[in-house]
Amino acid sequence: MDTDQYLEMFLEESKEHLQACNEQLLELEKNPDDLGIVNEIFRAAHTLKGMSATMGYEDIANLTHKMENVLDAIRNSKISVTSEILDVVFESSETLEEMVIDIEEGGTGKKDVGSLVTMLNQIEAGKSPTAAAEQASEEKAVHSQPEGLVYDDFEQTVITQSIDQGFHAYELTVTLRDDCLLKAARVFMVFEILEKAGEIIKTSPTVEHLENEEFDNRFTVVLVTKEDAGDLQSKIQKVSELEKADIQPVQFQSASRETAAAAEAVVTPEASKDGAVEENEPAQPADKKKAGKAEASPKRSGASHSANKTIRVNIDRLDVLMNLFEELVIDRGRLQSIAAELQNSELNETTERMTRISGDLQNIILNMRMVPVETVFNRFPKMVRQLARDLDKKINLEIIGAETELDRTVIDEIGDPLVHLIRNAVDHGVESPAERRSKGKPEEGTVTLRAYHSGNHVFIELEDDGAGVNRERVLKKAIERGIVTEDAADTLTDKQVAELILSSGFSTAEKLTDVSGRGVGLDVVKSTIESLGGHISIDSKEGEGSLFQVQLPLTLSIISVMLVEMQKEVFAVPLSSIIETAIIHRDDILNAHNQRVIDFRGKIVPLVDLREIFHTGLPEEEEDYKSVVIVRKGENLAALVVDSFIGQQEIVLKSLGNYLQSVFALSGATILGNGQVALIVDCNALIK
Fold first, then answer.
1. Among 110, 148, 429, 679, whose CB has the most other CB atoms within 10 angstroms?
2. 111: Cβ–Cβ under 8 A, 6 or more apart, which residues?
């Protein structure tokens, strides 16, 4: 069967099932007696097993089958749920994720899962996870020894026929020196020599073990060749860091039935208990909705449940659709300009109708690109669980508003900043159980991750009930780093002090750990969020906790702007940054610290003349009245001086390209209805 056409479907659904496994495993850890959760995990694993076997990914099918057996033993009350058992199942799930990702990146999905399979087998047999780990370690040590090679029927046939045709069959055992640094490199060099000399039939340990250096210092290769043993030996012994190379003719050693059966149990998929189907048959769980996802066949979409009216669309197709619509928006603007010039009533009516229809179409296309933040949030419960264990803390992660949607382009970029924020909250924010007890807090700390819409933005908040930001410690570090002066430090509010931790290279960690990072502070988070047109702020109360708030635009493709003119050149200022527009008299302009400022509603705001910034030229005479746009970045304001206002318009945001990516205070460009190019002002850069 040609499985390539189903690969994308397999990858998507495998991720869904593995995500379901991870979520339910976290629930099972909280409710170990709830067999309903076990059944949900079992169904997800069972479906994944059938899918992977159908697609020919036997390693995934094998590991999933062993995991399924443990779950089956749990639901049949043969073994009880413990944290140690769940650790092994979690590790199996993570390994499966790595294998699926490998397939997605063009690999084979193969991975050495022998130790995990052994542990799962031992756990299923009723042994403790510790004993199972020891057994797996012993078996791995045995597998790394090339003693007593066993040949199956196929290998014996190949070797026998080769000898009949005049070839030699050798077992070549290579021993590396104890001080060999790059074992895999030496193995490669030996293989390169042997492959030129003949055909490699078998290795012990396996090639995968050898590539991963999972062997002591000795390995055996079975080779069919016409070269003499002496010639081969002399060639191989020229490889550096080799102690010796022994060559012997192949001697068949038949495997006993018991040994063969044991090997079969590890290598070959077997039927699961209670009548579960074989791996090489598509899984058919009782739950019909999930059964529909288990079949990799052309009938899948049409044969699914009648209530299922969704289809999968490749994001690349949506990008093409979005690009075409962006061209339509540009032409719509052009048509509106022509209609305004001609003042033809029929043309105006048609243009207005086209504007309404294209507006509805725009909403549909943008909604198609929207993805729930759940796709990012899903990875965090397992991550927090592991971090809490590593740091010996008790932490409960609450997720609110995971159904909130964001544009796919924003979703793709926001994952890493959120990981950094959560690590910061768990490592620096939430105290140890003993410290929390001494403060009268519950031992278990709470980290809350919430998302919600507000206007044309999505807000993502991360809140913890930990120690909060230590004002004195932060100020001391900021003064040491030259971020603030001692005089200025006393005038800062608690909020301003908290936001100092977003400064470049700022870190109060007394020692570097894998969790806290290597001196890479939250400035990376800040720069990433601002590159998306977003903003991050911090509120903190010492001893009570911290709140990180991230504000993000709904989409990055089509934005609303205020068009302004400067010396007949048009610029666009994003509406999301604008507070209001105003006209001021030149007598209202003041000077403070060699900076022109104005009094805006009782607040001193710096005055920035965009005509000077962008070198468009200034009027010959100083005008009595100036047009200004008041813009905001967090708590900071600025008044931008322009010649005149044109009006509000929706525009398509286009990149300036790699050649112009470092131009100050410009974030992109757009094409207006009259064909003119308008540059888009980056208000964040101006205020910064």
1. 429
2. 59, 95, 98, 99, 102, 208
Distance from C-alpha of 127 to C-alpha of 119, rounded to nearest angstrom: 9
* φ and ψ at residue 34, rounded to 5 degrees: -85, 100
Q: How far is CA 14 from CA 55, 101, 179, 238, in A?
A: 12, 10, 43, 47
CATH class, domain 372-553, is alpha beta
Superfamily (CATH) of domain 558-687: CheA-289, Domain 4 (2.40.50.180)
Residue 278: pLDDT band (50, 70, 90) is very low
Q: Cα–chain-centroid distance for residue 586?
A: 52
Joined together, the tokens standing for residue 221 give 């290769």
Q: Does the active-site annotation cover 62?
A: no
Q: pLDDT per residue over 393-445, tens digit each? A: 999 999 999 888 888 878 888 888 898 899 889 988 899 999 999 999 999 99
Answer whether 482's CB lies under 8 Å from 453's CB: no
pLDDT in tens, 289-336: 333 333 333 333 433 333 446 677 777 788 788 888 878 887 887 888
| Alpha carbon distance 432, 420 (integer Å) | 20
One of 209, 424, 428, 499 is an active-site residue; which one? 424
Sheet with 535-541: list strands edge to edge: 395-400, 445-454, 457-464, 545-553, 535-541
Please indicate, yes or no, whether the overall pTM of this predicted structure exceeds 0.70.
no
Q: 153-249: what CATH class? A: alpha beta
- Residue 346 tokens, joined: 């029929």
For this structure, is 68 an active site residue?
yes
DSSP codes joined into one string, 93-133: HHHHHHHHHHHHTTS------HHHHHHHHHHHTT--HHHHH
Q: 4-140+266-303 has which CATH code?
A: 1.20.120.160
619: cis peptide before it, omega within 30°? Answer: no
Please give the Cα distance from 100 to 15 (Å, whole number). 8
Report the largest interatomic distance among the alpha carbons of the chain, rounded to a whole angstrom: 106
pLDDT tens track for 473-496 = 888 888 887 888 888 888 888 888
Whether 555 contacts 366, CB under 8 Å:
yes
Catalytic, out of 46, 143, 168, 428: 46
